[in-house]
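Exercise 3.2. Students should predict the tertiary structure of the chain below and write it as structure tokens, then compare their answer with the key that follows.

Predict this chain's 3D structure.
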Amino acid sequence: MEKSSLQPLARVRAEWAIPQQLEALADALTGAGPALAFGESSYNEVPQGCALVLPTSGSSGAPKSVALTTGAVIASAKASHSFLHAEPGDRWSLLLPTTHIAGVNVLIRSLELGTELLGIDDGADFTAIVPTQLHRALNGDVQLLEHLQHAKAVLVGGAATSPELQEEAAQNNIRLVTTYGMTEMSGGCIYNGRPLDGVEVRISDGAIELNGPMKAIGYLGEAPIGDSFFRTSDTGRLENGILEVIGRIDDQIITGGEKLSLGAVTDFLNSGSPQRFIAIGLPDAEWGEALAIASDGPIDESAVKSALRERFGAHASPKRFAANIELPLTALGKPDRRTLSEIFGRLP
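Answer key:
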């Protein structure tokens, strides 16, 4: 790439307060300042037209640097506000880290509305959280619960939100909007199963593919995405215009010659349970990959094996367990299976 086609990239520093982040973000979006990187990035320059750089937040593999234009992230903010019927004067609260697109989107939406960005101590009209935060609000975090109850709408995404958790939220007067998206689409672009304005969704060979004005340029150091649909790592189905996300393509293991979805196992164990579970696959000489289960509480190994065999088949019988551990999660509350695999490697 020609040197003249590049522009400098500044980085948000850990010591920057939110007002300083907002100022730098506004300059990056208007072109008054350099492009801005949130989170880790090894790049010092980016293509002309790139305003923001954010890392992907997958649960495995090395993160990539996603390049986003001003047009893309503003299109995302406008589509979100249109869905939510946001009005001038409405205010957002920031409850997520700005090292990921979900937190940065809250900053952008606040700039788009021209209103003050709030924290948990103030009553906001809108906010965004991950399922882990929702679980905590419904299980003892009174301040967070009251904050969510005050909002006109609470976006929840970053990971699957179980039907049981959604029902409990409704019973506690929390007006949830489930979101689905990824950094490559400027964050959430499907709300309550419906595409936001301008978003196209299709299923190809079982995989969800997305397109729209909020799509990223591509990954730094790689060829641009172009005008084509972005193929996600998720499987899903479309029915009457409603998207149902089934699971991740890359969370499947093959154990004893049979495919098994780690996400489906995790969701099944967490359904209706006060404690949290994560399922992972571990290399195994006999099985190829062996199913392992970790939990932040005690595990009745016999009961778990029986329940999983009944639900998924004999190949879903776990071979290893780790009870009463702190479950590793990404900043957006997704299972960090790479770290969990390292934890199992240290266990006797």
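Discussion points: The mean pLDDT is 91. Residues 70-84 form the longest helix (15 residues).
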